[in-house]
Amino acid sequence: MLLNETAKETDMVKRKEIRIYSEPAGGWGALKATGEALALQGVAVSGAKTLLRMNQPEGFDCPGCAWPDPKHTSSFEFCENGAKAVAWEATANRCTPDFFAAHSVSELTAWDDYDLEMAGRLTHPMAYDDATDRYRPIEWEDAFAMIARHLNGLDSPDQADFYTSGRASNEAAFLYQVFVREFGTNNFPDCSNMCHEATSVGLPESIGVGKGTVLLEDFEHADAIFIFGQNPGTNSPRMMSDLHSASRRGAKIVSFNPFRERALERFASPQNPVEMATLGSTQISSFLYQVRVGGDVAVLKGMMKAIVEADDAALAANLPRVLDIDFIDAHTHGIDALLEDLRNTSWDAIVPQSGLTRADIENAANIYMQAKNVILVYGMGLTQHHRGTETVQQIANLALLRGNIGRPGAGVCPVRGHSNVQGNRTVGITEKPSPQLIDGIERAFGFRPPVSHGHDVIAAIDSMMHGDAKVFVALGGNFAAAVPDWVRVQAAMRKLDLTVHIATKLNRSHLVHGKDALILPCLGRTEIDIQADGPQSITVEDSMSMVHASGGRNQPASPHLKSEPAIVAGIARATLGPDSHVRWEHLVESYDRIRDAIEIVYPIFERYNERIREPGGFHLTSTARERVWMTPTGRANFLVFEGLDEDPSHDDPDTLRLTTMRSHDQYNTTLYSHSDRYRGVFGQRDVVFMNAREWQKRNVHPGERVDIIAVSKDGIERVIRGFKAVEYELPDGCCGAYYPEANPLVPLHAFDAKSRTPSYKSVPVKVVRSAAVKDTQRAAVEGDQHAYQ
Ligand SMILES: Nc1nc2c(c(=O)[nH]1)N[C@H]1C(S)=C(S)[C@@H](COP(=O)(O)OP(=O)(O)OC[C@H]3O[C@@H](n4cnc5c(=O)[nH]c(N)nc54)[C@H](O)[C@@H]3O)O[C@H]1N2
Ligand SMILES: Nc1nc2c(c(=O)[nH]1)N[C@H]1C(S)=C(S)[C@@H](COP(=O)(O)OP(=O)(O)OC[C@H]3O[C@@H](n4cnc5c(=O)[nH]c(N)nc54)[C@H](O)[C@@H]3O)O[C@H]1N2
Ligand SMILES: [Mo]
């Protein structure tokens, strides 16, 4: 059966088909996809062994998402996309000096992102040679010296930016920030600025901590789980086992998403023998509400309004209150202003903004009110908006109304992205150092770092655009493809004096190089990391603040690789010279020493080395979970969102809100294939989803090619051309396309004012039929229309 299916799918990919996917998420389709990913990367045999060590007490932490594992002590949990993340790292392909000798940078620039990464693991440090337009091998010491020369030649340390992507370990990220601060700047643009910054800024104002308040075991005690703008079946698949069991024991799950994401509807657990044998599945969401893109605030305010109305009615009828008045009195501040705002917000205003009916919103509110314990989950569908921070705060408001924070089975659950993005933040990757961090570094190393705030992603880009920035160093990631407006950003990056990328695989950012450029290849999570004191483990913090150790067992992809901490230490030693306050080599000889230093800077890591050796690691306490509110009022704050619309300046009926999201077969800018199985897209990514009514309005037939034009008042033309029209039952007034292909449409100035998170999920656009549709495309169109029937 599986072989037949594979042949059918290969055919669909070849024919670039669009068709409705009728299977549940997970199940045999996921097992098949896992096998194929391993085979494609040539890791079929050793890969299986590698997978068995994933998320084991003695193994490595999955390099995929940040969803926790059941105490990191249990047996292997199946996850299709975790397997792909491992396969892409443990690939048999190698990107060697011969590869770079054979292909000039100009030639590689024309390659697809998928093909760049398929070249395999980087094996040697490489430096750009202008004369031949090629990267050529360089010795590690010469590379470090080149960086030192550039950095020490700057007029000011603030002319350099130091990017971090959230896969770096606590040890690497900590050393990196100490180095950069001793060098003299707080310029730390990081992937979190494009991701959960709205959480990091919004939740502290509400509940005094910028992280979630639940642990995995809370999912076993929740009576209702609400999921806003998050796609767990694709982006945190291990969460599906928690949702699967919650649903089976009768908890209500309610999702809000413009897309009917398949895993939010139905899921077959590969660990459930009965479901697998009978081709059965479990319904996940009791209700999946297709909210309009950017309509979440209207939904959240509507739900709160319904709760307040129910409370008024209960009060009038002398029935028990719906609001948790004891909690509100004892723990919160600002309820009166919130109640007034909700009473002044009419249903007539809420309903059209939300894209749902009043009955839908009231039904969701009823489920919320009837549940004793509620978990509120959210992802990028909430944070990457024009008023993302304030939207996140409405999640906290909703939770606080019924005391759903700080007791078992209840809480706020922002689902983090990269596997250690939360840990990076905890150990000091921030452009706004706190007094505790400054004092801590002085305590540990005897120097006082700069206090003035540095660059986040938007400020780093501004600095490049103005020609102020000269050097860009990246600890992982793919900045040039992940940022908004990348056509313009890439042009600015090409004017830099030096670009440095610490990376495992070749990507777009390495080709968008400065006058000098280095690619420094590092070990991955799956690989053995041997330093002077023997094999080392690193540590990471997951989405629920559990910290645990991770140690690879695979042989490194090349003998020339260094670990991330060793590379950072090499750069630091070369740049800061013998007068540095830090003994870089000494720290890297044993990562226990780095952890001891982390503990001095951050006392919450007390007994760090001891506790990571305990099975399952340890939990970094969240004060809000204990109902201790670290806010200026000393209480949890209800915060009012004025109005309902995140950006009322775009109410022209012809303008659509474009959201950009991930396919099932990508990890951020890394593509696993060009297909998106659950949304029924095969062999292509240049597509735009919209409902039939909106396509008809524009006189476009599914399968035809369209241009997408950003609506912006700055006079700059931002357009992507020739995208294929796909019919998908989205709410009116919105459309969707893939990240990073659609990023050129996101204007640099379109970001949330409070957190400066780019508004990747609410881009005002117009969509028009492409000027010239060639006959060959017409033929393809007819083929596609066929596939629809
Ligand atoms: N396999 C895999 N795993 C990953 C990643 C990956 O790329 N691949 N990326 C990692 C990272 S860094 C992150 S941050 C997370 C991202 O994980 P998610 O937060 O799930 O990210 P997205 O896929 O961008 O978008 C989430 C959902 O928001 C919906 N959405 C779009 N606009 C709106 C809106 O206005 N309102 C609502 N309610 N929903 C909306 C989309 O339809 C989509 O289902 O996953 C992490 N894990
Ligand atoms: N339009 C739009 N844009 C978005 C988003 C969106 O939803 N829509 N999402 C945003 C979000 S949430 C995020 S987090 C950013 C992601 O932005 P980034 O984190 O910068 O991007 P990634 O694609 O995750 O980076 C992939 C690269 O990391 C390198 N890498 C992989 N493993 C390792 C390792 O172990 N060590 C090192 N040093 N390098 C490694 C490889 O070279 C790989 O090519 O993109 C943002 N951009
Ligand atoms: Mo992210």
Put the structure in a nutshell.
Belongs to the prokaryotic molybdopterin-containing oxidoreductase family. The longest helix has 21 residues, at about 295-315.
What does this molecule look like?
38% of the residues lie in helices and 16% in strands. With 789 residues, the protein is of the alpha/beta class. The chain has four domains: 5-89, no CATH class; 104-191 and 420-605, Rossmann fold; 197-414, Dimethylsulfoxide Reductase, domain 2, CATH 3.40.228.10; 656-781, Barwin-like endoglucanases (Beta Barrel), CATH 2.40.40.20. Strand 25 and strand 26 (670-671) form a beta hairpin. Helix 2 (27-40) packs parallel to helix 4, helix 15 packs across helix 19 (358-370) and helix 23 (435-445) packs across helix 30 (591-601). The longest helix has 21 residues, at 296-316. Residues 191, 195, 417-418 line the site of molybdenum atom (MO).
Present the secondary structure layout.
Elements: H1 2-14, E1 25-26, H2 27-40, H3 44-52, H4 80-89, E2 94-95, H5 97-102, H6 105-109, H7 113-118, E3 121-122, E4 126-129, E5 134-137, H8 140-152, E6 160-164, H9 170-183, H10 197-207, E7 224-228, H11 232-235, H12 239-248, E8 252-256, H13 262-265, E9 266-268, H14 273-278, E10 282-283, E11 287-289, H15 296-316, H16 325-331, E12 332-333, H17 335-344, H18 347-354, H19 358-370, E13 374-378, H20 380-383, H21 388-401, E14 411-414, H22 421-426, H23 435-445, H24 457-465, E15 471-475, H25 479-482, H26 486-493, E16 498-503, H27 508-511, E17 516-521, E18 530-531, E19 534-535, E20 538-541, E21 546-550, H28 564-576, H29 584-589, H30 591-601, H31 608-611, E22 618-619, E23 636-637, E24 656-661, E25 666-667, E26 670-671, E27 687-690, H32 692-697, E28 705-710, E29 719-727, E30 734-738, E31 763-769, H33 775-788
Parallel strand pairs: 1-9, 2-3, 6-15, 7-8, 7-13, 8-11, 12-23, 13-14, 15-16, 16-17, 24-30, 27-29
Antiparallel strand pairs: 4-5, 4-17, 9-10, 18-19, 20-21, 21-22, 24-31, 25-26, 28-29, 28-31
Helix pairs in contact: 2-4, 8-28, 9-28, 10-21, 15-18, 15-19, 15-21, 23-30
